[in-house]
Amino acid sequence: MIKVGIVGGTGYTGVELLRLLVPHPEVNITVITSRSEVGVSVTSLFPNLRGKCDLRFTEPSIETLAGCDLVFFAAPNGTAMGMARALLEKGIRIIDLAADFRLTDVEVWHRWYGIPHLCPEWLTSAVYGLPEVNRAAIANAQLVANPGCYPTAVQLGFLPLLEQGLVDPERLIADAKSGVSGAGRKAELGSLLCEATESTKAYAVPGHRHLPEILQGLQRVSKAPVRMTFVPHLTPMVRGIHATLYAVLRDPSIDLQAVYETRYAGEAFVDVMPPGSHPETRSVRGANTCRLAIHRPQGGDTVVVLAVIDNLVKGAAGQAIQNMNIMFGLPETLGLEIIALLP
Amino acid sequence: MIKVGIVGGTGYTGVELLRLLVPHPEVNITVITSRSEVGVSVTSLFPNLRGKCDLRFTEPSIETLAGCDLVFFAAPNGTAMGMARALLEKGIRIIDLAADFRLTDVEVWHRWYGIPHLCPEWLTSAVYGLPEVNRAAIANAQLVANPGCYPTAVQLGFLPLLEQGLVDPERLIADAKSGVSGAGRKAELGSLLCEATESTKAYAVPGHRHLPEILQGLQRVSKAPVRMTFVPHLTPMVRGIHATLYAVLRDPSIDLQAVYETRYAGEAFVDVMPPGSHPETRSVRGANTCRLAIHRPQGGDTVVVLAVIDNLVKGAAGQAIQNMNIMFGLPETLGLEIIALLP
Amino acid sequence: MIKVGIVGGTGYTGVELLRLLVPHPEVNITVITSRSEVGVSVTSLFPNLRGKCDLRFTEPSIETLAGCDLVFFAAPNGTAMGMARALLEKGIRIIDLAADFRLTDVEVWHRWYGIPHLCPEWLTSAVYGLPEVNRAAIANAQLVANPGCYPTAVQLGFLPLLEQGLVDPERLIADAKSGVSGAGRKAELGSLLCEATESTKAYAVPGHRHLPEILQGLQRVSKAPVRMTFVPHLTPMVRGIHATLYAVLRDPSIDLQAVYETRYAGEAFVDVMPPGSHPETRSVRGANTCRLAIHRPQGGDTVVVLAVIDNLVKGAAGQAIQNMNIMFGLPETLGLEIIALLP
Amino acid sequence: MIKVGIVGGTGYTGVELLRLLVPHPEVNITVITSRSEVGVSVTSLFPNLRGKCDLRFTEPSIETLAGCDLVFFAAPNGTAMGMARALLEKGIRIIDLAADFRLTDVEVWHRWYGIPHLCPEWLTSAVYGLPEVNRAAIANAQLVANPGCYPTAVQLGFLPLLEQGLVDPERLIADAKSGVSGAGRKAELGSLLCEATESTKAYAVPGHRHLPEILQGLQRVSKAPVRMTFVPHLTPMVRGIHATLYAVLRDPSIDLQAVYETRYAGEAFVDVMPPGSHPETRSVRGANTCRLAIHRPQGGDTVVVLAVIDNLVKGAAGQAIQNMNIMFGLPETLGLEIIALLP
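ok -> structure tokens follow
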């Protein structure tokens, strides 16, 4: 049994970690922290866990986390980098679901996150936790940076094209639509039901923090420089990301369906749908699956890739547990064989 | 392993049965039928099951179902009564998720359902599948009539009051709010997103078919005649029933919280919340739980019971599997220990 | 032209007042205040008003409001009572959309609102602005207390029964379902899309502040004491209240349809639907209409009244403008002949 | 007063025409037809119109329409082309809200709509009703083809770039998100609330009928050949289209904001927002406005245009009335000065 701690358990990735970890056969959650809810029972915040979890939130501290084998950080950006060094020095392994260790270049981090990094010496040894790219490194990692939600969908969608140099890497477009849970469980006007329902809008068009993360990931597998226009949108639903990806093919005669099916043949959590498919975000709601479809409209030179994930599962908590399974030598799908809730 | 057949697998209770039965450790689904989708793969209708289920729909027939230990009818009202006799004679057990065997009085059935009953001789030996009332009879039943969604919530909410004669049984009011999935997966104008979202309405106020079912169930446990005003409402959500129940207390000094906690102390799927609680339907989304709270506003003589269920789980497919577990001597919670999807 | 000021224009009743007052042919909005948004243009908060309104928010003060003929308070409870005296002394008329002047008994006010009243001397001369009851008094009022949203729907639904003594006034039940905009435009966790969508719950069952307001209004027209159980619910939509009202008839043979049609025959904003109807909240979305239907299920002695309004219009801003029209001798429907937005 | 007939009044564009035409000061609706609802009152289908409209649906026929000055076709594709010739020969003017007369090339029409055209001789003399391009021709037209919803948003967004040759016309991408009302008021599985809510998906990626319409419109103003990748998406809301448009700039140094502001300076229904804006679809809900914002992310050579409309208003009924106003010499904004319903 892996002794697990969760730092910052009051947000949506926190409660999603609990939903998935509580029934996990190899996990024992020993501590869950929340600065604002110390002493409060988890079930008073999340009644869906009544009868399943009798933990109470405690003050986050190195002492209480010291007995863990693994600590998940489900806290806001900036939390993990303040506690990571002390935990890592004790030999505790870490999966950070926030952004603190996703970018290897500290200057890029400063530019996009606007605060000094408190633990820069770990930036290069942290492993970027996208199993479909980094499985071997994740197995041996002490510190895993769990990918962002948009970066998971966009990278899984573009990877086969860039790995094989099939498209112009400087003309990538990622038009992504996200549910509102991506904004977190924070009392902000823009996330109110009355503000966000029955409406769609783009946001952060001038620049979103997930752009450098995506570029870094795609650049690693591309021989030529990668440039991308990334436009995230808010759509009126709770869970789900739909990434619609556009690229210009170098050779339109290539069998793209075969490229994708081959690339992801061994992947338990990537589902390449039959030709002509249109994946729905609800087909992965609550599941750790990325579902892909590949189109070449009117037989032109533009490829359109459709990628859907549940931002809280494959885009956050589920992928974190997938990483945990890899790190601890467990079957990668353990505790993650969930059928999406439909309808 | 129980060999299971599903008749009418293309509706919402059908896909919900699949979601719950596919991972069930003691179940082997051998046949799933649909008159309209013969030969079609289940996953082409329900892509959430891709990689989990390789069944195809077949024509419903006694022959193909003959090899089953248990047949679930997830078809419209009127289907099970046409096939039940032949299956029962072969010793096959049946759980009907529709209404064909819920009412014991064939005259009442005619009045509310408007068609002749094709299998009236089984009406009295069918067991009404509300485990919290009929557990022993269910264990030995060959034919179980799975309760309706509203009747499950309303009966679980009222039972302790009527069993103990604590309220005036002729002044019951059940004001129930349902998600749209209760209307089924049928192409009807009123269930369109553009018709049903962003709106609330009552319907069937002159009389809803679940009323006689509720009255029959409550009458069984009440010494005095039961009368009820039942008003169902359509609310703009997919899953969930919220029943708000009103009754006049005979003795307002009684400790109602204790009455409910005692009555449901041994029940795995009924959760009596702490005093002052307001259960949300989302706290049971996807789970087989009925969550209850009891109030006596301003200390008056009116008791208000709040009961929530997921209409597709405890109100349909989950309760059916709970009944199956009981019928086949399995642990009652097997395959049903699901944590609700929140948010 | 009426010179109008709006205090607290950043909430949902504020923007709704603007939507209705900007095109009103007899209104000139001269000032709109917001303590938090001083200097900000109205359209930067509410882009639906771009090109229609070039006001900027100013600091609320007696000086800036002194030039108005009428001031609407669309601010939180407790705001109007602090400024009313000074404005009233200048002869300015006031319509308060909050609760400060709705209850005539200062002790009741203290008990339910928990803060001392700053302007108690006006409590009895303020006119309760439900035109269907108080039209004549409203015409001459200097200070109008605009009714709450629930109280508007519940009173309009119950009034004919209580005015004529047709039901037992001590056994009233009001089960009300509201959209989330009733909670206001405030950054609170419970109003987030991810918390409030796809779920229904009751709240404030032990006691809601609209209960004493409803009781006061119904008591005025009832010869016998009135008691009510009031259970409000949150449903996942933006606008709309559906009140389902239950009462015990003294004489079940009475023609209730005729009673309601006669009572509201001259009312432009109350629509008694044909027998057997089920009004939908969306049928009044954006409109100043209360739509009613009357049922007597199974011919019993329980009457069920269904009443729907848009909580932001007939339940707030629209009713306030209806009151303004009456106060200033304008046609009562001026600027309010809106057709609901459907779908 | 213009005597107006509406053919096919039971769909969403039909009820929207009624919402806008009933209060229009220069319109008298004399006939509304529906083959399926002959004799039924309009208000029994659309209770939002109770008290505002006492029409009943009649059988569609040349005789009953012969007394009209103008006939709106709000019927499915294929209806107008069957009745147009007879009406036009009587001198009656027509605005077709469906697709029958949008494409000038009959071969293209056959290819995309799959049925023979019954009135091909009118294809070239019909005027495409996008006032921002064709105002003068519309004024004199006898037959106006009202644009599709996607084509309205996409063309208004791209027009300034193509008219001035600022982008590569062969690399256009239009990623469009639509509410479900675009699918019409038809009982189809895919439009059920339980199928369409809480999910996003692309559809018709291989080819959507609005693509040739958009290309035809853009080609008219472009000197060089136009090619486009068009991907429509279904998002879980009732009304609204959000088009996110991508193009490669020839000269990235151009002041795009000025280009757009100049182009649309005189247009009452096109609102170019300030730099950095992100228009929300809800900001135009119920209004006849197209709201635009122009971005050049990270100062690159890719321009991103965000365009929002209400698909039922500027994308259908509102634009049709705008065309009517132009055709009959009325102020273009008459009856259309609506403030969007927000929230």
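Chain A has a mean pLDDT of 97.
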